[in-house]
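Think of the structure tokens as a kind of shorthand, similar to the way a musician reads notation: each symbol stands for something richer, in this case the local conformation of the backbone. In the example below we present two proteins back to back. Begin with the first one, reading the sequence and then the tokens, and try to describe in your own words what changes along the chain.
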Amino acid sequence: MTSKEILAFITEVGIVPVVRTSSAESAMQAVDAIYNGGIRAAEITMTVPGAIRALEKVADRFGDRLMLGAGTVLDPETARICMLAGAQFFVTPSLRVSTIEMAKRYSKVICPGALTPTEVLTAWEAGADVVKVFPCGNVGGAKYIKALKGPFPQIEMIPTGGVNL
């Protein structure tokens, strides 16, 4: 799939549950529950022990029936390993242009973390599909996103960290 197709799939699903568990086995169980609950997207974080193994098993089990992503991706090497394990999109907690470049090289979706206006713009200019504003809740939540959208109406943003209804 191309990055546009991946992003369209995620947008249609409307939610991406983040799987952050204590083992690869519990991560796979969580993804099973997510899928059985009708949600067709999930992100397994690299903080899960054995996360790469979990990505591989989930990708084998669900194939293109589930949009699988890797979260807490800190560098381009990890992004590449996750891609080979079956991840179609990547979410990072911070801005690292080389990770964005890796994802774009293979037409995958990348949502790098950014907080300041400079980081948000840098991520967008580097090719981010969506900029993850993190930790959004700590700096005003929806009000902060609204403030960023003033000068950056063209930048797609996802708030994370302390977000609720």
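Once you have a description of the first chain, move to the second and do the same.
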Amino acid sequence: MPATLSYVIVTPARNEARFIEKTLDSVVGQTVLPLKWVIVSDGSTDDTDEIVQRYALRYPWIELVRMPERKERSFAGKVHAFNAGYDRVNDLDYSVLVSLDGDISFEAGYFSFLLEKLAVDSSLGLVGTPFQELSGQTYDYRFVNIEHVSGACQVFRRECFEAIGGYVPVKGGSIDHIAVITARMKGWETRTFTDKVCLHHREMGTAQRSVLISKFKLGVKDYNVGNHPLWEVFRTIYQMKASPIAVGGFALGAGYLWASLRREKRPVSRELIVFHRREQMQRLRKVFRRVVALPSKPTKESVGARSEMVK
């Protein structure tokens, strides 16, 4: 067995009183504990601070950092909160940095599993696992791109996080997606390992919005990170199969088209857009080759080939 890498965790948390105790229990129950865990209360107005402080009194490696209350909710604010926690661990001698949301839970061997993956493969810069919604829904990673790593828990090799320059404070979101793409652009491999999952206790993207509005906003995010138009067409068609049937995919496509017609300024470099689109076109070509080679009668494999465009 390889030597266990040392790690630290940073968690931006805004009004997570309903869920954060599940995350706290998951981390303190790990078989390999972090050197430090900084939880940044991003202007929380509920009992988040009190819950975290109660654990911090029992576990000296947990630290609560309080940010001023802010009226506007944005992903840029989340990055600023993360950076406040990141500053608290910069001087520590660690190998791995974990960005962890305050609304997920996982089993006791979760981090030791991911640390081992990094320890045995030096080319890996960012790893994670699928997340599962309370409804039981999760992507089928036999077919979906396993190079994408969910923002619920992103486990970075320290050198990788420093190479990408950290998270980009984009007001509209996609900060985790941009980090994953940038890591690959910088030459690191990224990977979701499907052997384990984490449980996501809040439905993704619906903290203050309806599902349809969330789908529309997701389309805008797709435009912002530079998704190729052809890729987005197939992604929209595929998403029409998901709930809410048809209209969800339509809302996704409408968001992308709306942002495109407005010619919104993208928060990423031209270099990243070119790299990202090249990856998408390579994946589309692979999908088409698989579909052409498959029998005309629908099979599990043919459905899976089409579903590669979910991410």
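Compare your description with these statements about the second chain. Confidence is low (pLDDT under 50) at residues 300-310.
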